[in-house]
């Protein structure tokens, strides 16, 4: 076969993980190993119980991407889970007492980690396919949000969280700025906790018709964070953790809000560098009041200046890029290349389901193609030092371990490392959009979608199996969503037209 390139043809090189030849070996081994599965296999038609019996779980014979360089990747290996935690990742684990889940047709990898999603908009999905940022603020925040009742927040958070699990997003930061009253806060947390997702709950401001959150009659932001800490977040050993979702504003006021977070040991998340508004050197002004710290995640960052980028880097802060919405709504270019040039590994986020799909495949492909396009443009423009192309593996790391870092959870999740909690997705590679698989990292980043998410575990619990959520009454969820939707349209006085 003659290739268009004399050497280094990309389709002949061993790629970041498995070469084609290696993979073919894997497939053969996988087929041979399948009949050897012990009794106790959870069969195709049997759903595993959501609450485990206390027996270990063995994910058997999968193509494992641990994303931990010390553990490595395997063409075929097993993952043993005992209680909440991963206890081993290697080939041929013997665990006679374990429930076995056949992973031979799957890529086994850490669950995706989203670092910024406004989950109170869960039942307003796809409401604004053509909306700009201004439309979003006017319609979603000032019309819908200002009129939300606590039951709306509960339904939306639950719906959005179950959507996360379904799509393989095992950890999500709920950027929750719907705290029109303390009851709204209780409702958001209830929805998250009921879903079983791992969530960083980021407590934020109320919504009002005017857009000024201080005018909300029952506003308790930010002081109520102390109650929330005591009432819901008094242990580190739980699935939900506490953040503060900071509004913008005059820097001295914002710094006082950050103090309320730090007083109760909550990390901080804030939108910066959004469109023209983002060119105010806000972070320089904040830094002049008090040096930036490593406990803060900066979202979007599209129009920050070079000094602000350096301040984030020097402080050890983290970055969340919501690439898809940034291109749709005029935030500015997703700053993946800028982050890399500054020495920052960004995390990824969905942001708003009102115009963005809820999965992470879209997020990965958005930053992947845009970063490459930027390097190509530099090269075509004749720049000598045009920068390096992002690799698919780096994008996968942004979507997992870098997300865990930004959510303050890198010691618990983000890689398949023995000792970490078992937040794991199994992605089918025997589906028509992927088969026959040639490169595992490539399959996830370039080819897969939510339809490949077969099995999801969070803290060792099986949350999705054989493509179905486990232990979820879908009729009830649909009813909750519909009722909230009807109520919210009426309250907001928005015409309820689906087409
Ligand atoms: Zn946002």
Topology:
Blueprint: H1 20-33, E1 57-65, E2 73-82, E3 85-90, E4 99-102, E5 106-110, E6 112-117, H2 133-144, H3 150-166, E7 169-176, H4 182-195, E8 198-203, H5 225-232, E9 240-246, H6 251-263, E10 267-272, H7 282-289, E11 296-300, H8 306-315, E12 318-321, H9 323-329, H10 336-342, E13 347-348, H11 360-380, H12 392-398, H13 401-406, E14 424-428, H14 440-447, E15 453-458, E16 461-465, E17 468-469, H15 474-492
Parallel strand pairs: 1-4, 1-5, 6-7, 7-8, 8-9, 9-10, 10-11, 11-12, 12-13
Antiparallel strand pairs: 1-2, 2-3, 5-14, 14-15, 15-16, 16-17
Bound molecules: zinc ion (ZN).
Structural account:
- This protein is an alpha/beta fold and 499 residues long.
- The protein has two domains: 20-110 and 423-466, Roll (Urease, subunit C, domain 1); 112-406, TIM Barrel (Alpha-Beta Barrel).
- The protein contains 15 helices and 17 strands.
- The protein has helices at residues 20-33, 133-144, 150-166, 182-195, 225-232, 251-263, 282-289, 306-315, 323-329, 336-342, 360-380, 392-398, 401-406, 440-447, 474-492, and strands spanning 57-65, 73-82, 85-90, 99-102, 106-110, 112-117, 169-176, 198-203, 240-246, 267-272, 296-300, 318-321, 347-348, 424-428, 453-458, 461-465, 468-469.
- A hairpin with a 7-residue loop joins strand 1 (57-65) and strand 2.
- Helix 6 packs across helix 7 (282-289), helix 11 (360-380) crosses helix 12 (392-398) and helix 12 (392-398) packs across helix 14.
- The chain binds zinc ion.
- Residues 116, 118, 175, 271, 299, 351 line the site of zinc ion.
- The site of zinc ion has 6 residues, from loops.
């Amino acid at each position: 076969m003659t290739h268009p390139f004399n050497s280094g043809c990309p389709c002949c090189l061993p790629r970041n993980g498995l070469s084609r030849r290696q993979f073919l070996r894997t497939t053969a081994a996988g087929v041979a190993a399948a009949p050897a599965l012990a009794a106790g296999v959870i069969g195709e038609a049997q759903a595993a119980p959501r609450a485990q019996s206390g027996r270990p779980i063995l994910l058997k014979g999968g193509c494992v991407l641990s994303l931990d360089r010390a553990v490595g990747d395997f063409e075929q290996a097993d993952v043993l889970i005992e209680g909440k935690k991963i206890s081993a990742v290697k080939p041929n684990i013997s665990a006679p007492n374990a429930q076995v889940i056949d992973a031979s047709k799957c890529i086994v990898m850490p669950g995706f980690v989203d670092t910024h999603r406004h989950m109170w908009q869960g039942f307003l999905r796809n409401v604004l396919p053509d909306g700009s940022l201004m439309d979003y603020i006017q319609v979603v925040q000032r019309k819908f949000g200002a009129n939300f009742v606590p039951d709306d927040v509960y339904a939306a958070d639950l719906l959005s969280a179950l959507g996360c699990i379904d799509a393989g997003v095992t950890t999500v930061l709920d950027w929750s700025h719907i705290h029109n009253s303390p009851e709204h806060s209780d409702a958001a947390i209830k929805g998250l906790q009921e879903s079983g997702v791992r969530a960083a709950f980021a407590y934020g401001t109320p919504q009002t018709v005017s857009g000024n959150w201080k005018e909300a009659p029952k506003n308790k932001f930010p002081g109520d964070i102390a109650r929330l800490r005591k009432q819901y977040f008094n242990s580190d050993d739980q699935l939900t953790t506490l953040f503060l979702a900071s509004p913008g504003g005059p820097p001295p006021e914002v710094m006082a809000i950050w103090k309320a977070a730090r007083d109760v040991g909550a990390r901080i998340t804030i939108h910066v560098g959004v469109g023209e508004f983002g060119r105010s050197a806000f972070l320089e002004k904040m830094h002049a009041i008090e040096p930036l710290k490593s406990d803060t995640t900066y979202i979007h960052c599209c129009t920050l200046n070079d000094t602000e980028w350096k301040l984030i880097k020097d402080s050890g802060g983290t970055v969340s890029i919501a690439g898809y919405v940034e291109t749709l709504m005029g935030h500015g270019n997703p700053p993946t290349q800028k982050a890399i040039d500054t020495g920052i590994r960004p995390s990824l986020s969905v942001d708003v389901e009102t115009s963005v799909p809820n999965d992470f495949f879209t997020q990965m492909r958005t930053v992947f193609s845009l970063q490459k396009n930027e390097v190509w443009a530099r090269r075509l423009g004749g720049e000598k030092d045009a920068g390096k192309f992002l690799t698919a593996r780096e994008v996968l790391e942004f979507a997992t371990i870098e997300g865990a870092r930004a959510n303050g959870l890198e010691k618990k999740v983000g890689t398949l490392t023995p000792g970490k909690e078992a937040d794991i997705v199994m992605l089918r590679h025997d589906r028509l959009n992927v088969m026959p698989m040639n490169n595992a990292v490539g399959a996830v980043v370039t080819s897969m979608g939510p339809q490949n998410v077969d099995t999801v575990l969070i803290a060792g619990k099986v949350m999705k199996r054989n493509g179905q959520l486990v232990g979820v009454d879908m009729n009830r969820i649909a009813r909750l969503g519909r009722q909230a939707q009807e109520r919210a349209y009426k309250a907001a006085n928005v015409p309820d037209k689906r087409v």
